[in-house]
Specification:
With 397 residues, the chain is of the alpha/beta class. 35% of the residues lie in helices and 18% in strands. Strands 4-12-11-10-7-5-6 form a seven-stranded mixed β-sheet, with helices on both faces. A four-stranded mixed β-sheet has the order 1-2-3-15. Strands 13-14-17-16 form a four-stranded antiparallel β-sheet, with helices on one face. Bound molecules: pyridoxal-5'-phosphate. Pyridoxal-5'-phosphate (PLP) binds next to helix 4.
């Protein structure tokens, strides 16, 4: 398989519409042919502040003129400041910076295995959740439970047991002597926005403490305000031993982080590293994002906009006989009982609206965290049209 025309030089790894985007501003993306799209995908929950936010653009431009890379062999100012900032905000004490969520999770798996070898009699297995998603390196694919991945790229990395989410009994039974850690998402994003119950997360924290097993929370998608609190685990009032971040952290700039308590941070020189780890350009973007997201009133507004979007989606669901609205903050999903979510997303695209269908029965909404109520209204209008099977009236914004 390949893409048509000049697009064929891009390796075929995903189905993509033959539209080339050239510009983005806030909640809007502009294609080369002039069409404007209202974006409720936002780089896959990446653009926390929307497209080309001045705060991030200015920080990156200023840093680019100052210092782009000093190599991972030396400290640089944005790296040190961001590590301290994340530590203060998360309750974790150490930060390792990476470029992608998968890389941060790969680091978390390595750290847990090293910790198990030093502090838990060589325990190395990791228990993850059914339907979980942790990224696309070999180990992260093995840790994930995505349909279709079972037989891909064999042999898998071994040692990942999967248990159903929200079943503390199954988890307790899975925590054998050779288990070093539990790793899961507070809200399973790629699975279709399936939240772990807050009571389950609290029970899991108590259970892992009692058994002497690490708790790794993958907040690559849920972190940085996406669910209405800076980190989703704060809603359960728990702190993990290892916390991974990605997506929204850089506001569109590739930046991820592996955070851990001091007690767990047992890497020695040579165990972990990467050419772009702690890169000043990307860390400067992360600092700009954190400043915006932690500004007074910002997260309250995420909750308010999330509640408004959920309310509008529930009304739409009633009108069209659709399923439940799930999720929190601005990570929401709408159930599509007929299982034609991909076709609806394709019609929405034709009508100038970018939406994601992570599963046949689910539409996912992950707008910019500063999305306007008027933009939510426009999104609902266009989705309403797509649900009516209407031909798009206009694709202009
Ligand atoms: C997207 C995602 C990842 C992978 O992040 P990449 O940057 O694509 O490697 C890992 N975990 C979760 C929960 C994610 O949503």
């Amino acid at each position: 398989m390949e893409y048509p025309g000049e697009l064929s030089a891009v390796m075929y790894v995903a189905e993509r519409p033959s539209v080339v985007f050239v510009e983005g501003r806030g909640s809007w993306l502009v294609a080369e042919d002039g069409r404007r799209f209202l974006d409720f995908v936002q780089g896959w929950a990446v653009n926390s502040l929307g497209h080309a936010p001045p705060a991030v653009a200015d920080a990156v431009a200023a840093q680019a003129r100052t210092l782009i890379s000093s190599s991972p062999a030396y400290f640089n100012r944005p790296m040190v400041t961001l590590a301290n900032r994340l530590a203060a905000l998360s309750g974790m004490e150490r930060a390792y910076f990476a470029v992608s969520g998968a890389e941060a999770n790969e680091g978390a798996i390595k750290l847990a295995r090293k910790w198990g070898s030093l502090h838990r009699g060589g325990a190395w297995r990791i228990v993850t959740a059914a339907n979980g998603f942790h990224g696309r390196t070999l180990a992260c694919m093995s840790a994930s439970d995505k349909p279709g991945w079972g037989a891909l790229f064999e042999p898998k990395v071994t040692g990942f047991a999967k248990v159903p989410l929200n079943d503390i009994g199954a988890m307790a039974a899975a925590l054998t002597e050779d288990v070093a850690a539990v790793m899961l998402e507070p809200v399973q994003g790629e699975a279709g926005v399936l939240p772990a119950d807050l009571d389950y997360l609290r029970a899991l924290r108590a259970l892992t403490r009692e058994r002497g097993v690490l708790l790794i929370l993958d907040e690559v998608q849920t972190g940085i305000g996406r669910t209405g609190t800076l980190f989703a685990c704060q809603q359960a009032g728990i702190t993990p031993d290892i916390l991974t971040l990605g997506k929204g952290l850089g506001g569109g700039v590739p930046l991820a982080a592996l955070l851990a308590t001091a007690a767990v941070s047992c890497f020695e020189p040579g165990d972990q590293g990467g050419t772009f780890s702690g890169n000043p350009l990307t860390c400067a973007a992360g600092l700009a994002v954190l400043e915006a997201v932690t500004a007074p009133g910002f997260l309250a507004q995420v909750c308010e906009r999330g509640a408004y979007l959920a309310e509008r989606l529930r009304a739409l669901s009633v009108r069209h006989g659709l399923g439940e609205v799930r999720g929190s903050g601005l990570l929401l999903a709408l159930g599509i009982p007929a299982g034609d979510a991909a076709a609806i997303a394709a019609r929405a695209f034709a009508a100038g609206l970018l939406l994601n269908a992570p599963r046949p029965h689910t539409l996912r909404f992950m707008p910019a965290l500063n999305v306007g109520r008027d933009e939510i209204d426009t999104m609902v209008e266009r989705l309403d049209g797509a649900l009516h099977h209407k031909t798009p009236a206009t694709a202009r914004g």
